[in-house]
Amino acid sequence: MSMWWFITTLAIIAFISNSPVYAYDNNPLQDICVAVNDSHASVFVNGKICKDPKLATADDFFFSGLNVSGNPETLFGFAATRVDVTTMPGLNTLGISIVRADLEPQGLVPFHTHLLATALITVLEGTVYAGFLVPDPANFFKSRLFSKILNPGDVFLIPQGLIRFVYNVEHKKATFLASFNSQNPEAIMIPSLIFASEPPIMDDILAKGFQLNKSEIAELRKKFS
Ligand SMILES: *[C@@H]1O[C@H](CO)[C@@H](O)[C@H](O)[C@H]1NC(C)=O
Ligand SMILES: *[C@@H]1O[C@H](CO)[C@@H](O)[C@H](O)[C@H]1NC(C)=O
Ligand SMILES: *[C@@H]1O[C@H](CO)[C@@H](O)[C@H](O)[C@H]1NC(C)=O
To answer: Which is nearest to 190 in space by CA: 128, 122, 108, 120?
Structure first.
């Protein structure tokens, strides 16, 4: 076995075994693949099952309602209205979606990430402070913050998978659109995922992990659940 063959094989194995972690949405294999509206009809390969193209209608490619704000939840003061494969079935397999986000004064889209999608944020109204964290390759206990104050018309790019936030710095409402290169850019909301998991993470682990004492952990659990 030649060395080159060996190295190439290793490289291919490394690529294949990494690809689910660093995946993008796949390219479609057909012109249209409108998702059947059945929450059980998920194929865990490339989104949803397609319905018969003859049964597709213009409504499958249409969404109405991004002209109005969602109802902001109370803890952080933000609302998200998603136009993804669950609300616009025609997006199935096409690798794109958009979200309208509304922030109350001092509202925050808290620390979160989208593992499968890069985001472009476009501010429509108000002023927000948006940022994302890039791990330091030399020391994974450190990171660099990339952040910007954004006004209407400003566009900010947040690369796939990085932890980010968007904060309304003003005393009036703010609205922005987030465009994603995924039909279903599932959000991983870090504070609630960690402090409100089911079953809960052991207190000792949270206390050690965040260098807090147990009463502070109990306090955080209460806030996020
Ligand atoms: C939003 O758009 C819908 C559909 O065009 C329309 O019916 C509705 O009145 C609009 N709402 C506002 C607040 O503009
Ligand atoms: C899918 O079906 C549910 C339940 O019948 C309905 O509430 C929802 O609006 C439908 N979604 C779409 C995108 O048609
Ligand atoms: C936990 O930390 C808080 C804030 O630092 C402190 O006020 C409290 O006394 C501590 N509680 C315990 C049990 O150590």
So the answer is: 108
